[in-house]
Amino acid sequence: MRPPCGPAEHAPHDTPAVRGRRRFCLILGFFRRKLAAMRFEGSSHYVATDDLKLAVNAALTLERPLLIKGEPGTGKTMLAEEVAAALGMPLLQWHIKSTTKAQQGLYEYDAVSRLRDSQLGDERVKDIANYIVKGVLWQAFEAQHPSVLLIDEIDKADIEFPNDLLRELDRMEFHVYETRETVRARHRPLVIITSNNEKELPDAFLRRCFFHYIRFPDPSTMQKIVEVHYPGIKQDLLRAALESFFELRGVSGLKKKPSTSELLDWLKLLLAEDIPPDALRSKDQKQIVPPLAGALLKNEQDVSLFERLVYMNRHNR
User: Gene3D superfamilies given for it (predicted)?
Assistant: First the structure.
């Protein structure tokens, strides 16, 4: 099949079909130029490093999916939300579960409803299109303007899930067998795919993506992140909290290291309870674990390990 804006060989020079095709190509070219000119420069609600901004803009330029990996709680999902807001593009989200199938992102045929309606004599059964439920990819493909499509936590699905989307994400089209139609993207969406690295993704899928790993924020970047969420926080409390947080993260052997989102929850509690900075620096042997540490440490083994190591460290000084 000839691409929509490919050369029209042996076609009449001025027919309604050719004129319509020419208008379509002009509109498509306009939106492609507009999308290519877009640049993500971060936002007031999201602290994006220079290399992360470069990664987003590289995906825009290459028209390839942006695969984002990083520890849980490093802002991978929020990135898609902020990119959409900053570029003025609608956001469509597909949150992946262990039971999610690739077909669900395209469409699903509701055969059960059609059978029920046929038994009730409903006239809708004559048109099978009435029982096609559009998935998130279909919605992104038929959007009137370029959009941001988030495929969140792709590594939760089975190993074949990424391969089942290769052609659709590469060619931006898919076939609906029930209605015998081909759905093509009006405008190529910016696809942002997140992964917590629970399982490796297929090489064929990786070749079609631009990859970026969000490193865990250093103390300086973390301070900026906190100040975005709590602009009025006292610097003394912030310094004490960050010192305790990074000391905790540095403990070797933790089953689950606290993430950025858990730090923000902890700070919210410290502010709500009006905990003074000195309480976070206490040398009292009975207060080895920081106040409200349940926001940071999520199992008893980690609590015990932290208590033991800090106790030994203080006694060796």
Answer: P-loop containing nucleotide triphosphate hydrolases
* Residue in the block written with tokens 């942002």: 192
Angle at 55 between CA 227 and CA 81, to 5 degrees: 55
Gap between the terminal Cα atoms of the chain = 76
Please report, for the chain, the start and end positions of each structural domain, with discontinuous segments joined by +. Answer: 16-214, 219-315
Q: Which pLDDT value is given to residue 19?
A: 63
Q: Which two tokens stand for residue 216?
A: 């865990």
> Global pTM?
0.81
Mean pLDDT per block of 10 residues along the chain (317 residues) reads 49 63 59 63 88 96 96 91 95 96 96 87 85 96 95 94 94 94 95 92 95 94 94 94 92 89 94 91 63 87 77 56
Q: What is the pLDDT of residue 1?
A: 40
Give the integer Cα–Cα distance in Å for 228 and 75. 13
**Three-state SS sequence of the chain:** CCCCCCCCCCCCCCCHHHHHHHHHHHHHHHHHHHHHHCCCCCECCECCCHHHHHHHHHHHHHCCCEEEEECCCCCHHHHHHHHHHHHCCCEEEEECCCCCCHHHHHEEECHHHHHHHHHCCCHHHHCHHHHEEECHHHHHHCCCCCCEEEEECHHHCCCCHHHHCHHHHHHCEEEECCCCEEEECCCCCEEEEEECCCCCCCHHHHCCCEEEEECCCCHHHHHHHHHHHCCCCCHHHHHHHHHHHHHHHCCCCCCCCCCHHHHHHHHHHHHHCCCCHHHHCCCCHHHCCCCCHHHCCCCHHHHHHHHHHHHHHHHCC
